[in-house]
Design a protein that fits this description.
966 residues, Aspartate Aminotransferase, domain 1
Length: 966
């Protein structure tokens, strides 16, 4: 790699210099004239279909990229969004924007699988779970979902599993959000669920037998009604009641749990999270007692550490259903942690009284607007309302919406005769007056005593008055957010210090390397992150008119074109808002393609035994049967077994899912033979793009025989992991599958309304963070992206070479090379010394590191992925720590330290464990807390090793009382 001129982005992004790379190549044993890529990538695929027709060869400077983004942002028109439909204009407290959303301590953290170094974000997620559970009136919430529509799908699947057998009918409220109904249709069809739409609020009867029903509360039309009778009827029919609820409304109206709901889902977007053209936003799910083991996604629980101190961790048995593989009812592999943290901190900052006041203000503005419209003779649809009105204007809906648009406000044209108006926290008095004028209520809006004018009431007065406007049986009487965390941080000073205290407990990329195999924890550049808080990107409603989002559409079109070029495909959809959803979308495309040709019987999906659990789970949720293909001793797909499975299922073969480079971290040299064998049998090839960081610029999935792939923008393309989300998982496909990619009825882009339907709530998924990947590609250019691949693969081979004599490298490809990650086999160490993979992982914390990926894809191993972003000093620091730990294990084996009392078995060591009480261990305090190589940047874990089993036996998933910490 050429370091390039000072200020060139690629030289800033890639941590190793040209001189460093020469030394590393020598350590790896690369011959003169060769490169690590030329010896690692199989010759049969090297250079296949090189990219370069769409993506710029050279990157631009950071300043130039920001200037181009400013130009794109300037083509978006920021109007007051009063469209509603599940998305509301909100105000992000500056203290949360600066100290969470824009803080690398939060946005560069990884999923909290290592709980000892994740206590801050785990506490924040426990706040989120407590907030959701309190407001929904049910006991167990998970740590966030991808969005409201997919949360509704997951609620449907939980209900089906809870009922076990019987009916395949699921009822959907006619007044549910339109995008939720659309996503439900796509997902239900694939798994054999029959959807029946019923006007529940209108009193229509349920089918005789159902396994569940979805109720929207309040309805998409804005109607606030009592669904208790419907919930009771669902139970009588043998089903589970799923309620999609507005969290802010629940501060004023009765909780779904109090009305008998079994499952409550929704979005926390209006709790301080920007609109972002549809995402990312944290959905939520909360369930009644008895369903907690069915929860998809992640569940934060409470346990204790080795000293008996209270500590948080992911509840092992419930955190991810996709580990059930082909028996899964969900393929969710991520969450929306960063956005869940923002929503939780919004509740912490405002507290219960503040949230009630915000809700009351929203309802008050809605009521005053309604009064102004009625006074002017408008036909406002009757019924109680919280924040949304439907107004009948026969034949004039388009005219009214256009008039409001000209005045700077976006309204919803429900049909030719009806306009929807939705009030949000950020809605101003000027917005209300503009809306009134658009409906012809100019005189009423201008009058000095107009109800649009606001009042001098206090917040408490307004809460009391708006409460009176809710029917008595629906007024909320239950307390919520009673835990002290929601009442202790009223001032900005207190809030800032609370966020800092939590961040200090955690290990993120701003502290050091996170060498996680399969996860690509690379630099998330500040320049790439800069634009996501610009209002031209952040304050755009996902259903805004096409003419107002020209900048977004141009950015999306460019990014889709670049990704298609880089992967060798013809079409890309950016809609999937996680890698797991991209997998599902790709498999649904394959399913749709086969069915369009009359091949309904093709439903077998071949998946290697090494594959990530989401692959099998996604196949099941796409209506496919999973058949596992064996891997050989080198970790490659066993070609003989593959051919035997193809022959056995030739007539039913739908797809093969493989990951390239493989899940075992090697470039399989038989990949072209593998894909050809599937195509010869009439199947399609899905190549999982999780490991694209090892291929970019050197070969393309579409040229390896891939028909469709998903990509992880939060891995290869530098969107931050955010502690476990947001993610973006675009799906890319060949031309013959393009017609079966996701679509959306509200999509603004040309042709984006045509396809199989949506897999996420918003037309372009988590569009608000797409500028990050756009900026990354624009600043790197094809040359920089290729250099990044070279540097990442060289770093992995360097680590493998230096550690090979201490820890066997389990799998290698041609000439003994690995791809962008290597699997270190710790099973011999365990057999020889008794030191486990857990002991090594926890001891790395004392050395100042996040552990590599543990026991995946092989139990008893560590999978290391150093990425291109780390410099040579950090790589050497990690290698030296691993070697030092090996020597510590040898001292245990030699009998110098007992097997149950040594630095590894007792790791990690907290400051308290070193300073409080007598030191009775056979090793020194210094050895315990300051092992060799630890310098000034000492990281102190807040807790010792956590007892996972205790937490699962004593499941607690909400904020514990303060005295629990005593």
């Amino acid at each position: 790699m050429s370091a390039g001129a000072f200020g060139e982005y690629a030289a800033r992004h890639i941590g190793t210099s040209a001189d460093d790379q020469q030394r590393m190549a020598a350590a790896v044993g690369v011959r003169a004239g060769d490169t690590v890529m030329s010896t690692a990538v199989p010759g049969v695929i090297r250079g296949l279909g090189e990219a370069g027709t769409a993506i710029p060869q050279e990157g631009v400077s950071e300043a130039a990229a920001l200037a181009e983004l400013r130009e794109l942002a300037g083509r978006n028109r920021v109007l007051s969004p009063m469209i509603g439909l599940g998305y509301s204009d909100t105000l992000t407290p500056s203290v949360i924007q600066r100290n969470v959303l824009e803080n690398p301590s939060w946005y560069t953290a990884y999923t909290p699988y290592q709980p000892e170094i994740s206590q801050g974000r785990l506490e924040a997620l426990l706040n989120f779970q407590t907030m959701v559970a309190d407001l929904a009136g049910l006991p167990v919430a998970n740590a966030s979902m991808l969005d409201e529509a997919t949360a509704a799908v997951e609620g449907m699947l939980v209900a089906r599993r809870a009922v076990r057998g019987g009916s395949d009918v699921f009822v959907v409220d006619a007044d549910a959000l339109p995008q939720t109904k659309a996503v439900l249709r796509v997902r239900a069809e694939a798994v054999g669920v029959e959807l029946v739409e019923v006007d529940l609020a209108g009193g229509a009867e349920l089918p005789e037998s159902v396994f569940g029903a979805l109720v929207q509360y309040p309805g998409a039309s804005g109607r606030v009604w009592n669904p208790q009778g419907v919930i009771d009827a669902v139970h009588v029919a043998g089903g589970q009641a799923v309620v999609a609820a507005d969290l802010l409304a629940l501060t004023l109206i009765a909780s779904p749990g109090s009305l008998g709901a079994d499952i409550v889902v929704g979005s926390s977007q209006r709790f301080g999270v920007p609109l972002g053209f549809g995402g990312p936003h944290a959905g939520y799910m909360v369930v009644r007692q008895g369903l907690e083991r069915q929860l998809p996604g992640r569940l934060v629980g409470v346990s204790k550490d080795a000293d008996g101190q209270l500590a948080y961790r992911l509840a092992l048995q419930t955190r991810e259903q996709h580990i059930r593989r082909e028996k899964a009812t969900s393929n969710i592999c991520t969450a929306q942690v960063l956005l869940a943290v923002m929503a939780a901190m919004y509740a912490v900052y405002h507290g219960p009284d503040g949230l009630r006041a915000i809700a009351a203000d929203v309802q008050d503005k809605t009521a005053r607007l309604r009064a102004a419209l009625v006074a002017a003779g408008a036909d406002v649809v009757d019924g109680a309302h919280f924040d949304t009105l439907r107004v009948r204007v026969p034949g004039r809906a388009a005219e009214v919406v256009a008039a409001a648009h000209d005045a700077g406000v976006l309204l919803h044209r429900a049909d030719a005769d009806t306009v929807g108006v939705s009030v949000g926290e950020a809605t101003t008095e000027a917005d209300l007056a503009a809306v009134a004028r658009a409906f012809g209520a100019a005189d009423a809006g201008a009058a000095s005593d107009s109800p649009v004018r606001g009042s001098r009431e206090t917040a408490a007065d307004r809460v009391a008055r708006t409460g009176e406007s809710i029917r008595e049986e629906l007024r909320r009487t239950e307390p919520f957010l009673t835990h002290p965390v929601f009442t202790s941080h009223r001032s900005e000073t207190a809030m800032m210090r609370y966020l800092k205290r939590l961040a200090d407990k955690d290990y993120a990329l701003d502290r050091g390397m996170i060498p996680l195999g399969s996860c690509t924890m690379k630099l998330n550049a500040a320049t790439a992150m800069a634009s996501i808080t610009w209002p031209e990107f952040g304050r755009i409603h996902p259903f805004a008119p096409r003419e107002d989002v020209a900048g977004y559409l141009e950015l999306i079109d460019q990014l889709e074109g670049w990704l298609a070029d880089l992967t060798g495909y013809d079409a890309v959809s950016l809609q999937p808002n996680a890698g797991s959803q991209g997998e599902l979308a790709g498999l649904l495309a394959i399913r749709g393609y086969h069915r369009s040709r009359g091949d309904e019987n093709r439903d077998v999906c071949l998946i290697p035994s090494s594959a990530h659990g989401t692959n099998a789970a996604s196949a099941v949720l796409a209506g496919m049967r999973v058949v596992v293909v064996a891997c050989d001793e080198q970790g490659n797909v066993d070609l003989d077994d593959l051919r035997a499975k193809i022959a056995a299922h030739a007539e039913a073969l739908s797809a093969l899912m493989i990951t390239y480079p493989s899940t075992h971290g090697v470039y399989e040299h038989d990949v072209l033979d593998i894909t050809a064998a599937v195509h010869d049998a009439g199947g399609q090839v899905y190549i999982d793009g999780a490991n694209l960081n090892a291929l970019l610029g050197h070969a393309r999935f579409g040229d390896l025989g891939g028909d469709v792939s998903h990509l992880n923008l939060h891995k290869t393309f530098a969107i931050p992991h955010g502690g476990g989300g947001p993610g973006v998982g675009p799906v890319a496909a060949k031309a013959h599958l393009a017609a079966f990619l996701p679509s959306h009825a509200f999509a603004q882009g040309e042709g984006d309304t045509e396809g199989i339907g949506p897999v996420s709530a918003a037309p372009y998924g988590s569009a608000g963070i797409l500028p990050i990947s756009w900026a990354y590609v624009r600043m790197m250019g094809l040359e920089g992206l290729t250099q990044a691949t070279d540097a990442a693969v060289l770093a992995a081979n360097y680590v493998a070479a230096r550690l090979a004599e201490h820890y066997p490298v389990l799998y290698a490809g041609e000439e003994g090379r690995v791809a962008h990650e290597c699997i270190l086999d710790l099973r011999p160490l365990k057999a020889e010394t008794g030191v486990s993979v857990d002991d090594v992982a926890k001891r790395l914390i004392d050395y100042g590191f996040h552990a590599p990926t543990m026991s995946f894809p092989v139990a008893g191993t560590l999978m290391v992925e150093p990425t291109e972003s780390e410099d040579l000093a950090e790589l050497d620091r990690f290698v030296d720590a691993m070697i030092a730990i090996r020597r510590e294990a040898e001292r245990v084996h030699a009998g110098e330290w007992p097997h149950d009392d040594n630095p590894l078995a007792n790791a990690p060591h907290t400051a308290a464990s070193a300073l409080v009480g007598e030191w009775s261990h056979p090793y020194s305090r210094e050895t315990g807390v300051y092992p060799a190589g630890v310098g000034e940047a000492k990281y102190w874990p807040p807790v010792r090793r956590i007892d996972q089993a205790y937490g699962d036996r004593n499941l607690v998933c909400a904020c514990p009382p303060i005295d629990a910490f005593a």
